[in-house]
Amino acid sequence: IAAATGRGAELGILLRGGASLEAAARVDTVLLDKTGTLTTGQPRVTALHVVQGEEVTLLARAAAVESRSEHPVARAIVEAARARGVALPAVEAFEPTHGLGVEGRVEGHVVRLGNAEWLRDAGVSLDGAPAVADGETPVLVAVDGALAGVIAVADTLSPEALPALEALRALGVELVIVSGDREETVASVARQAGITKYFAGVKPAAKARVVRTQSARGHVVAMVGDGVNDAPALAAADVGFAMGEGAEVAVATADIALLRGGLGQLPR
Ligand code: ADP
Ligand code: MG
After folding, report:
1. Choosing a second label site near 257 at 20 to 30 A (CA), which of 36, 69, 93, 160?
2. Mean pLDDT split into 10-residue runs, the chain, 268 residues
3. Residue 238 is a catalytic residue
4. Catalytic residue, candidates 28, 33, 181, 226
5. Which residue from 73, 118, 186, 189 has its CB within 8 A of the most atoms of ligand 1, so it is best to mutate?
6. What is the DSSP string of the chain?
7. Contact (Cβ atoms closer than 8 angstroms) between residue 256 and residue 245
8. 98 CA to middle of ligand 1, Å?
9. Going by CA atoms, what residue is nearest to atom 21 of ligand 1?
10. What is the pTM of this model?
11. Nearest 10 degrees: CA dihedral of 165, 157, 102, 64?
12. Residues within 6 Å of ligand 1 by CB
């Protein structure tokens, strides 16, 4: 993003070239990421469900692996451990998979955590896994291939979201949520945001495909996101908007970065 001067910089909006601004004027469809775009991006741990072992061990191992990830869900888990004064053991062989989860070796154990697909891929049985509320994201934790617990994480709509969405509707654009999170959680946020159309469980490459499908139907598509997982979709969109506080790769890939005021600046 080029260093901007004048009115754009004053507003905290950075543009990569004038073409993006011209395209922005023709946008009729706005695809929105959920975590960190519609929501605050600062989720909290709301519950810990232990399946096997001690609660403090579960939290310590989960937080140790997540301390290497920049995902908002990871930050919530690390913060929960910190708030309880839990010391984090060392992590080896850390491996993140965007849109699914993370894995690492802690105290001689393989600790893998993330969504249901990520654990099932590793052959972990989720039979009888504790359920979490619809609005919460379950982070399933497996130790050495067996489910050890479920950490419930919840985020809230950002304070700018509702007024921004209302202003966008007044401009006549269609609003669609495209999220990597599970169906129940996305549906709950969609309800709160008053958005009826959403896609859940969408992995990074598939987010870009959703953008292309809308473009192929003749729409002028804006994608708004903040995460590493949003970068392919931001690149594929007619106009990609990144949250200024988002991941570096999201800001670098976007045409327009909303440096201050987040979603509240989008209608402008
Ligand atoms: P979102 O659209 O929610 O920003 P992502 O594509 O980043 O989605 O992630 C999709 C899902 O994968 C998350 O909702 C979460 O369940 C899981 N996930 C991704 N990264 C992590 C992580 N570091 N720790 C635990 N779960 C993760
Ligand atoms: Mg996000």
Report:
1. 69
2. 55 86 94 95 96 97 96 96 97 94 98 97 96 95 98 96 97 96 96 97 94 96 94 96 90 92 91
3. no
4. 33
5. 73
6. -----THHHHHTEEESSHHHHHHHHH--EEEE-IIIIIB-S--EEEEEEESSS-HHHHHHHHHHHHTT--SHHHHHHHHHHHHTTPPPPPEEEEEEETTTEEEEEETTEEEEEE-HHHHHHTT---TTPPP--TTSEEEEEEETTEEEEEEEEE--B-TTHHHHHHHHHHTT-EEEEE-SS-HHHHHHHHHHHT--EEE-S--HHHHHHHHHHHHHTT--EEEEE-SGGGHHHHHHSSEEEEETTS-HHHHHH-SEEE-SSGGGGS--
7. no
8. 7
9. 101
10. 0.89
11. 150
12. 33-35, 66, 69, 71, 73-74, 99-102, 113-115, 137, 139, 179-181, 227, 229
User: What token pair was written down for 156?
Assistant: 């809230």
Would you mind telling me the total number of residues written for the chain in this entry? 268
Q: Which two tokens stand for residue 40?
A: 């605050």
